[in-house]
Amino acid sequence: MIEKPRGTRDFLPEETSRRRAVEKKMRDTAERWGYAEIKTPTFEHLELFTLKSGEGIINEIYAFEDKGGRMLALRPEITAPVIRVYIHEMQNRQKPLRLYYFDNCFRYERPQKGRFREFWQFGVELIGGRRDLASFEMIALSVDILRAIGLDDFDLHLGDIFLLKRSITRGNSGLDEEKQRKIFRLIDKKDYNTLNTFLKDEKINGEDLFALLDLKDLSDLGDIEKIFDPDEKDEIEDIQRVLDLLSTYDIHPRLDFSIARGLDYYNGIVFEIYSHGLGAQKQICGGGEYELIELFGGKPESTRGFALGFDRIMEIVKESERDEKKILVVATEECRKDAITLSKELRKRFVVETDLMGRNLKAQLAYANSVGINFAVIVGRKEIEDNRFTLKNLASGEQVYLTLDELIETLGKD
After folding, report:
1. In 253-331, which ranges are E strands?
2. Does some domain include residue 67?
3. Which of 289, 316, 343 marks a domain boundary?
4. Residue 386 forms part of a structural domain
5. What are the tens digits of pLDDT across the range 99-153?
6. Helical H runs in 275-403?
7. Is 73 in contact with 49 (CB distance < 8 Å)?
8. Dist CA 200 CA 194 (whole Å)
9. Which candidate among 73, 233, 251, 400 keeps its CA 20 to 30 Å from the CA of 213?
């Protein structure tokens, strides 16, 4: 027997229904904010991802040479493809551009709880907009989506890559990029003991960096305001404006300047969201301001976005299957054609099945109970003669005898 590839999953109908219900709420929320869906290919030229993340990413993704000798890759994420589309097709459109996506991505990594080689992302990209207003919208939308699917037990952390970079480069002239990356990797891992040792060994002044990392509330700024230059104070004012706007949505992030995600292309306010129900793999959302358009050959434009880890979210979301009413039209053998005609009418409004196994009435009702169907509509000779139908609530056992209009009205009630 051939098994599924390692790091992939099959979704049976019940789980697929649950996932679709959550996906729909995410889509509906994004669209209510004015975002439109964008679709990109499952594979792209490998260079699209090495330009963004460096050659090292090749070991982490599915990269291959096609029959024409072109180096391609299954997409490990969707931000870079969206920016490619923007540069080629959408640069001259009115700003801001509000785009969202939901698709599968691929990474070649060791499978573990919450991490798979094929996984799904729901993400948003916002191209254009004033910094504070656009950053507010990104963060508020991400929280709005989580609230829409019933998640409210999470922590939102807000940081700033610009300030983080400046805190280590100011006063440390000649600090090369490799050392900077080493510092930021240690920050991202929260390995401050090793960081402190590295700074001492390399004779790097980390006073401003640790002052920033210790900052948890903007009210503490007065104690370390002397470390900020005028342009850095402007950045702090932007953060203050974003926090003020978020308060209108009852969103109160924790300041966390240890967020060091994607430092090669992130350039300003960043944020991450952590769930309390996932253990070590607790991050369910990450995003912020980034610079990719110029890197890919486009004209400079303010950009920001976020991605939600759909698979991790599905581990904790309490969403049940779609709450549509499911109906089985039950018929005797002589009335099967009448049942099919009735089903055609009911399917305009409801989920409707008919018997395909040639079962008798009792067996049809037993089947309906076994697969979670809510209602049975019974069609027999008497019903056809009276032009009425027996509606049976399979949960309560209650039965009523109704005309077609009464049947539709009754089934349409909450």
Report:
1. 254-255, 266-275, 283-290, 303-309, 326-331
2. no
3. 316
4. yes
5. 999 999 999 988 776 679 999 999 999 999 999 999 999 999 999 999 999 998 8
6. 310-316, 336-346, 361-370, 381-386
7. yes
8. 10
9. 251
